[in-house]
Amino acid sequence: MENLNSGVTTEVEIERVKEQHRSKEKDLLIREIPLTIFLNEQEFVTLFCSPQKLDCLAVGFLHLAGLLHGKDDLKEIRVERKKGMVFIKTGVSAGQIEKISEKKTGISRGERETSSVRDLNFLPGRENRADISPLGASLQVKAGELFELMASLLKASSLFKATGGVHSAALARPDKILFLSEDIGRHNAIDKIVGESILKNIFLSDKILLSSGRISSEVVLKGAKVGLPMIISHSAPTSLSVELAEKAGITLVGFVRGRRLNIYTHADRVVF
Amino acid sequence: MENLNSGVTTEVEIERVKEQHRSKEKDLLIREIPLTIFLNEQEFVTLFCSPQKLDCLAVGFLHLAGLLHGKDDLKEIRVERKKGMVFIKTGVSAGQIEKISEKKTGISRGERETSSVRDLNFLPGRENRADISPLGASLQVKAGELFELMASLLKASSLFKATGGVHSAALARPDKILFLSEDIGRHNAIDKIVGESILKNIFLSDKILLSSGRISSEVVLKGAKVGLPMIISHSAPTSLSVELAEKAGITLVGFVRGRRLNIYTHADRVVF
Q1: Could you tell me which of B120, B139, B149 has the C-alpha nearest to residue B245?
Q2: Residues B146, B253 contacting (CB under 8 angstroms)
Q3: pTM of the model
């Protein structure tokens, strides 16, 4: 495994002002890099991200875009860290890529929410199926376990957060965190978790997604796409994320802080 | 002007857990809505945002995408709040829309950074011009003024922030904030500022952009596109945002907290 701190920050010279005093000092900046994903030898998209777990990010991004179904689909993955490039080969046809790309509007939207609410009706494998089992029907988690999980996430990412403005996410079982990710982007952090799950062949329907950040509709849509039954956050959900979680059968828990939490939807998965 | 609190939040019933105690309570959620922008009678993009200043958001978004040059370009704007739709007519041709859309990769990227670093070479009106004046050559701001501006931003948005997870941005002169915006998305908040500047015909080359949130490369690219000479934030910049600000001639100031701040680039605009 790579050293978690390698390349996370970079040193620059800044001018620090305190009251009337001004001085030149060294400061640490959180690194942001452009990562270009090449899909089947075509340049596909450039994301701006923190330079860790680039393979996970690319795999998670493509999976959530509907362009990589699972590990069996992944014919080749090659990361060129210094160039900021990931090359992925999958069985997806040029026609499918074109079709999926056309469904979305082709303008850069930056760091913002752009999925359609209608996406919920197109969850992979869930279309037109009345017989589908409820998501994570068997998952039961104690409130005390949720307190512990969130405390672990915040503790594990505290060093990284020292530079300010970093989001963390993790995949967990009720009793422990399986792995975590950190990124300048909330969505990148979650895509890295999804990608790592695929690369490790981990079944998500009985797992919990943890996030340090706000839960917007797009986070819930991602959870629904991969079949996660529970999303818990240190921060607040939005109104639309609560509506979508209700509809998707996801337990949404927010403001997990100390020995408190709020349950917004499907509260029956949280027990004592 | 609309009441700033109308529709900002919505009430839901939640289950609150505190230690071993569990109770049903009412809670306020920050509202998130889908906003679909129709450009020249074609559905163009759906953004997820807070339901204020929707006209500003649509205008700012289209301007930053290169599809609306200024107020003269705007033939019609109609907001249908309840439907979550904005209809805009501009002089831009279908061919231009197509061309600009094709420059970007056509996959939803959610709340993440996706602009190309190469965008810096395509700043509107700055291509191939060696004779262009340096950005905001005349702007000089006292450090004390920056402390006051950030304090004003945080104070003005404190009520809204009570619900958690909201970003604020503002446009300012050295001596005062001109207007501010708040949104669940950092980029939406900035697009609203850009849009309001266009609708009010405000010249940006001697103004300051304030942000409560982290400064990533995409924020700096937006600032560069509209000719803003200074961006100040309560939070941290990333390494790439500092590189781009250096190149674009933008003064980047971070961690404006109390009577302290850090100047990352073009420090000569900050005086005592």
Answers
A1: B120
A2: yes
A3: 0.86
Distance CA B240, CA B217 (A): 6
Nearest CA to CA, how far is B165 from chain A (Å)? Answer: 6
Judge whether residue A138 has pLDDT over 90: no
In sequence order, the 6+-apart residues with CB closer than 8 A to the CB of A90 are A39, A40, A62, A67, A68, A73, A74, A75
Determine, for residues B108 and A101 on separate chains, whether the beta-carbon distance falls below 8 Å.
no
Q: What is the 3-state secondary structure (H, E, C) of chain B?
A: CCCCCCCCEEEEEEEEEECCEEEEEEEEEECCEEEEEEECCEEEEEEEECCCCHHHHHHHHHHHCCCCCCHHHEEEEEEECCCCEEEEEECCCHHHHHHHHHHCCCCCCCECECCCHHHHHHCCCCCCCCCCCCCCCCCCEEHHHHHHHHHHHHHHCHHHHCCCCCEEEEEEECCEEEEEEEECCHHHHHHHHHHHHHHCCCCCCCCEEEECCCECHHHHHHHHHHCCCEEEECCCEEHHHHHHHHHHCCEEEEEEECCEEEEEECHHHEEC
Question: Residues B212-223: pLDDT tens digits?
Answer: 988 999 999 999
Query: What's the pLDDT at A137?
Result: 66
Output b/e per residue, A158-192; b: 16+ Cβ within 10 A: eebeebbbbbbbbbbebeebebbbbbbbbbbbbbb
Q: Do B261 and A110 touch (CB under 8 A)?
A: no
With beta carbons less than 8 A apart as the criterion, state whether B185 and B113 touch.
no
Q: How far is B50 from chain A (nearest CA, A)?
A: 9
A163/B29 Cβ within 8 A: no
With cut-offs at 50, 70 and 90, classify the pLDDT of residue B206: very high
Q: Ramachandran region of residue B41, left (φ > 0), alpha (ψ -120 to 50) or beta?
A: left
pLDDT score of B149: 97
Residues 6+ apart with CB under 8 A from A136: A205, A206, A227, A228, A229, A230, A249, A269
